[in-house]
Amino acid sequence: MKKKGLFFSFLLFIFCSFNLLAENFPQKASKVEDFIPKGWKSIIVKKGDLNKDKIDDVVLLIQKNDPKNFRKVEDGTNLDFNPVVMLVLFKDTNSQYNLVAKNEKGFIPSEGKVYEKALETIVDEDSISVKNNTLRIYTLWEGPRAASTSSTNYVFRYQNNRFELIGLEIRSGGNSSYTDYESFVASINFSTKKLIKTKETGKYDSDEKSKIDKKEKTININKNYILENMTEETANEILEKYGN
Fold it and tell me: CB count, 10 Å around CB of 233?
């Protein structure tokens, strides 16, 4: 009995620890600022109609501002490893903001994680936009001296009471040699279940036209990808699953 009691005490300690680490965001507030916890800061605030009610909603990107989460990396640079959270707030007819989506899974990584794991991340405030009632997010990674790059465009639409991924475009490119280059584009439409893959190869300083190989196929998508569950690795996981 004593061992069983110790076991349950340990489980309770773990549960409480996770609750202490998690941030509690209000479900409704009159101001956007009310969704920013103490010790956090606003990075991006984007407005636009996301649920077709002709009222501007808000996409809020915030980051914890804890000095303990800054640390030096290999080259001596002091980088920020504080977590980044994305919130989506619907504004109602009473001018109240309602929390309808939240991503705390590292979908937008900190600059420290970007450096350590060579991850894509947003470039500036224009990397997040609202267009045609959809949420659009652009991320980019550049290798040393921009010899190689990768980028991803995400399109989310609010349907089934959640933000579902309806479009994904992944680009990568670089130098295959000092004279040759190649680029790859994979575009997935989750509504039509179509995948288009394009490969372009060519030579620098050449009058020859680049070679373009384009393939299109229908794919069996058996999973919905939700904004709340996205991580920095989700796009690559999707490409590995459906891109072959």
Answer: 14
Predicted confidence (pLDDT) per residue in 85-140, tens digit? 999 999 999 999 999 999 999 999 999 999 999 999 999 999 999 999 999 999 99
How far apart CA 212 and CA 23 sit, in angstroms, is 48
DSSP string, the chain: -HHHHHHHHHHHHHHHHHHHHS----SEESSGGGGS-TTEEEEEEEEE-SSSSSS-EEEEEEEE--GGGEEE-TTS-EEE---EEEEEEEE-TTS-EEEEEEE-SSSS--HHHHHHHT--B--SGGGEEEETTEEEEEEEEE-GGGSEEEEEEEEEEEETTEEEEEEEEEEEEEESSSSEEEEEEEEEETTTTEEEEEEEEEETT-SSPPEEEEEEEE-------BGGG--TTHHHHHHHHH--
- 47: phi then psi, degrees, rounded to nearest 5: -115, 150
> How far does CA 172 lie from the centroid of its chain?
17
Of 89, 87, 90, 86, the C-alpha closest to 52 is 90
Q: In what order do the strands lie in the sheet with 162-175?
A: 128-131, 134-142, 148-159, 162-175, 180-189, 194-203, 211-218
